[in-house]
Amino acid sequence: MCGRFVVANVASELVGVLRVDVESDDLPAPSYNIAPTSRVGIVLDSAKTDPPTRRLEPARWGLVPSWAKDVKVGARAFNARSEELEDKPMFRQALIKRRAIVPATGYYEWQTTDEGKTPYFIHPADGSPLLFAGLYEWWKDPAKAEDDPTRWVLSFTIITRDAVAPLGSIHDRMPLFLDADFADAWLDTEVDNVGDLLDAAVDAAPQVVAGLTDHVVSSAVGNVRNDSPELIQPL
User: Fold this and answer.
1) pLDDT mean across residues, the chain
2) Which residues are known to be catalytic?
3) DSSP E strands: which ranges in 97-171?
4) pTM of the full predicted structure?
């Protein structure tokens, strides 16, 4: 799973890495302890323009499908298992047309042993942005007026897969990582066979894992109210 991650001054780097055309002026501030329901910047291709416009937009972590009656549904859908996407109604349509990339500095994972749980910070060794494969949805709040600009909620989920070595020694799941070269294919709204696209992303993820490093961090990261650069420092 991926339940906490870090975004520290990543947004400006993405303009070059992912060739972002439009960067929202309402992006959340950097955070060292992002938890589900937080607002985070995500990258998506808007199909309403020709050619599609690549945007960096703020979104709520936890997918809220268009048919949901309440935004709280998203709190349970902050991760989506790659092997279940094509079968689950909550994710099926988003996989076809609403794929996103979630940029991060790194993420936290907890290793469970007989002595308890130990948090690790996992990130690219070269300091480059880490790119999670994600899905997004737009949800309209029926309780708000038609002319209320806050009526529409953009939300997302991070796709996960079975962990591969060496991350498998920390946890049995990991985010589905993308490299910058695969970004165009993942965001392409005109892909014909999303099953093949998903398989290709899963197969390529171990190449990203090879460039990651990890270290133990303070248990203070377990409290979402803690949010400072010290959280990612080696214990």
Assistant:
1) 93
2) 2, 109
3) 99-104, 106-113, 116-124, 130-140, 152-162
4) 0.95
